[in-house]
Design goal:
There is one protein chain. By secondary structure, this protein is mainly alpha-helical. It has 2 domains: 97 residues, Orthogonal Bundle (DNA polymerase, domain 1); 179 residues, Intergrase catalytic core (hpI Integrase, Chain A, Orthogonal Bundle), CATH 1.10.443.10. Helix 2 packs across helix 4.
């Protein structure tokens, strides 16, 4: 069955009506309409295509290449973002899949079209060495809560523990003589994490002098306690770290997760291998940990721009 150029708008309208019946949000419908229209305009302006049924995989691959070299309309004349390319291609793939299922086309030329790789965004809020030191020194360690908070910050930075992992850490999980802790991570997966010398000193000091003063009644066995002797909540820990970030005068907001990112990034910069960092953080996939190699590349770009002779000519 042919799909001549004159019928393209009708096919697009029928496709959108099909999506509307499936309860697609209006905003999504508008976005899909724009992406499909963009493709049809490309066919009309850049090719001699008169009939959708005559398109082959090579024609769709050519469109993908054309997208890659297209410029953004934001005014910066930069290339289209990978996200925009993926959205445009996804809309076209879904459009052709619909035409094929409806019998408008006898084959789907977009079926084997592969999307470009979309890298994960770089971790935000990574602290410099100086900012970490200022943050660690922010609590007043002369008080029980201040000593607890110093131990918390030191442990977050030295181990890269997640919020929940630190809050649920138990006394029996701490092996001070071996300078390590047992951590139950996501999916109840256990791992052993080394604790740095300075962090271990603060943790030991807290356990000996401050924790007994925070016990409000029954000892639940948790390492870190609230001022009432209970478990620290997720939001409490986030607020605690943010508070000391502000007290230290840091330019960015600091969270427990930012300290986790900072721990991994600083280890990588110092020469730690990526697989060791994977084990430390408890990532099930190395691909998750490799985001920190992208941070290193970002740092390298800054150095390159600042010092390469051709960048300063």
């Amino acid at each position: 069955m042919a799909a001549p150029k004159a019928k393209w708008p009708v096919l697009k309208a029928q496709y959108l009506e099909h999506l509307k019946v499936q309860n697609y949000a209006q905003r999504s419908l508008e976005s899909i309409e724009a992406h499909v229209r963009f493709f049809l305009e490309y066919l009309e302006k850049e090719t001699n295509t008169e009939d959708l049924s005559g398109l082959a995989h090579e024609d769709l691959a050519a469109y993908q290449t054309w997208l890659y070299f297209s410029e953004s309309r934001k005014g910066d004349h930069g290339p289209l973002s990978v996200r925009t390319q993926i959205l445009r291609l996804s809309a076209v793939r879904s459009f052709f899949r619909h035409l094929f299922k409806q019998g408008v086309l006898f084959h789907d030329p977009a079926a084997s079209l592969e999307h470009p790789k979309h890298r994960q965004p770089l971790p935000r809020g990574i602290l410099s060495d100086a900012h970490v030191l200022a943050l660690l020194k922010a609590p007043d360690a002369k008080t029980p809560l201040g000593m607890r908070d110093r131990a918390i910050l030191e442990l977050l930075y030295t181990t890269g523990l997640r919020n929940t992992e630190l809050r649920t850490l138990r006394i029996t999980d701490v092996e001070r003589e071996a300078a390590q802790i047992h951590v139950t991570g996501k999916g109840t997966k256990d791992r052993v994490v080394p604790v740095g010398r300075i962090a271990l000193n603060w943790l030991s000091l807290y356990l000996k002098e401050a924790r007994p003063k925070l016990l409000g009644g029954k000892d639940r066995g948790l390492v870190f306690l609230s001022k009432n002797g209970r478990i620290i909540t997720t939001l409490n820990l986030i607020d605690l770290v943010r508070k000391y970030g502000k007290k230290a005068g840091l330019p960015q907001e600091v969270t427990p997760h930012a300290l986790r990112h900072t721990c991994a990034t600083h280890l990588l910069r110092a020469g730690a291998d990526i697989r060791s960092i994977q084990v430390l953080l408890g990532h099930s996939s190395l691909a998750t940990t490799q985001i920190y190699t992208h941070v290193e590349i970002a740092d390298l770009k800054k150095v390159h721009r600042a010092f390469h002779p051709r960048e300063n000519a």
